[in-house]
């Protein structure tokens, strides 16, 4: 069994880097604060005797050798970047749970046949740079290193420069790093476990996701003298599409999702009719056919509105991954570890994307969910119970040991 | 007759301060660039022999003495602050036309009975600080100096500190400055004159305006795991109100206006359901009863949506002025100057607010419009013809002379 209070302390200590007044964390990918967080975790890895490798997209692997050098490592991890108004647990828990597994093995001087590795992946959140889950995406070849390097934040700073700036532009070619199996522990980020009063979520699959940038171009003009019928109001047109994004999500219960999270209005002055509006669209579904229908519907709607209003509407897909079922053996390893340890459990589909779906393209993978308070995540008030986090980490330990062999 | 090419040169020189790549001007109120613009105009005033007074809200009056010290001055002016993506002519033309009137009187050594003054008023645009038309509003007592001082920009900087910072926190008590009559020349900022192929717009009245800040508060949560029916999506609710603002404008042709110009989404991340959306509402009408109906309708709609959705909606009026008919004698002075000079003309209601409506509370006032290209204003491509600007300035000269007496 792992040490629950040591795990909790590590989470609280890491959460101090970028701590916000409301009890959350703002530690955006590849910022100075991300560097401080990375340095802290790497320092802990070194203290635990792990050897460190950084690849060209800044993914970090911290390795504990096994007794059989021929075996690929059993890897566990997640990410430590956060949302602009993020919580203490999202991602961070998964990395520190994996570290706690290693610390526990060290405490008990347990040797495994396969090596054990703790990983953290670059820019999982996708809030500073798109594509989302960038580090694991490049690692598995979902998109190229050059695509990732070229990604810019809203201030025009690119990933390669920022990686170099914080000292995490490594040498290893992403993906040149064998993996025997991958496990990721994570807070659920939704209300299902808490509602059902279960401790462990066994994750059979992750919803597919489709992200878009939409730009509506009208003509800025003075809000007073310009008669209503002569306007080209980009916001009035954009809000129709924003409404439809949510309508589409509502048309596909229970696993359809439609969200507009980000909006930029230009020039954003109260007495100027907006000349340009840029916004994001996030569509999800557990069924790829339905996700594709949602995709067709939003494109057709934008097209129809463009014809009706005469304004230019440019909709571009900027991220896509299909639904990802996890490997039956890994799902079973999680399920049987849960049963062995006597925790209540249920299956929970993941609505959030995780690095595990990209790791799953290269190796058998599985995930372990624990409840979070009121199902709230991507929010500074995100919270989770120490006993639940401890339970998830125990399940992780046993699932990893089943694959790594003692 | 005034010197049209000297007027044009002055406009072009002032437009270099804060010039944008697209040919516009970004010279927001009380910024370092506003200081540079003010210094340039004040320098020109001194060269023309004018004495300078600055009041406590930063309004500047540049005075040419008359032969009868008992008479109050005939004042003309406008503003030199601009929109974030503003043009060269809005406001700036009115100030420099008044200066050109003085230069012309100097050239011809014409003495007037009443003094002549060139004025420019602080923060007319209202894009950096609310209330709009701040300097003239404080001057006429529409709101207090303390209200104006306390106004903050989006970075939290307040008017008093910024006035001090640029060296335009003057001593004169606003309003302690008699005015005999006030004239303001301005580009129309709408399409009416150009459509009708007329050179001069005689302005009988200005539409009333009502501005609001609306804040919708929901709950931020993760865009993936949060089922549609459990969301409190502040943007989905806010966009309904934004749509209705435009619907209300459309319901009151031809002089109803409804515009949302400014939107801030929080936390503005693509995979976070927005927890808060703040936006501006701009309603206008030439008829105060109808404007009041529009006011009631938007408040009732917001109320209804709050009840329907359960989200908190806070709508606060932040600016209001009623429609303003100008003084018949001043309107006639403009009309007869136009006729005397032989320019084509028509009456044009102003959809934009102007400092003249506040000056009109203390003295007889009138306005002169000239066409602007395609009716476009509050846009970097705002444009106007030199011959039209010259014509407007000639009308201004003759209207002022009629009141100031030679
Ligand atoms: N787990 C998580 O928050 N991932 C970010 C990608 C997503 O939006 O699903
Ligand atoms: N003339 C002008 O642009 N005034 C600003 C106030 C308004 O929005 O009408």
From TrEMBL, chains A, B:
Residues that bind Zn(2+) 1: 79, 90, 186
This protein's source sits in the domain of life called: Bacteria
Signal peptide segment = none
Q: In the record, what terms sit under GO molecular function? A: hydrolase activity, acting on carbon-nitrogen (but not peptide) bonds, in linear amidines; metal ion binding
Query: Do the record's keywords include Lyase?
Result: no
Which co-factors does it depend on? Zn(2+)
The keyword Isomerase belongs to this UniProt entry's keyword annotation: no
Against Pfam families, the record matches this protein to: M20_dimer (PF07687), Peptidase_M20 (PF01546)
**Annotated Gene3D superfamilies:** 3.30.70.360, Zn peptidases (3.40.630.10)
Q: Which residues form the Peptidase M20 dimerisation domain?
A: 207-308
Cofactor note text: Binds 2 Zn(2+) ions per subunit.
Question: What keywords is this UniProt entry annotated with?
Answer: Hydrolase, Metal-binding, Zinc
Which positions are annotated as binding Zn(2+) 2? 90, 125, 378
The family assignment reads: Belongs to the peptidase M20 family.
Name this protein carries in UniProt? Zn-dependent hydrolase
**Annotated source species:** Undibacterium piscinae
- Identify the taxonomic lineage of the organism of origin: Bacteria, Pseudomonadati, Pseudomonadota, Betaproteobacteria, Burkholderiales
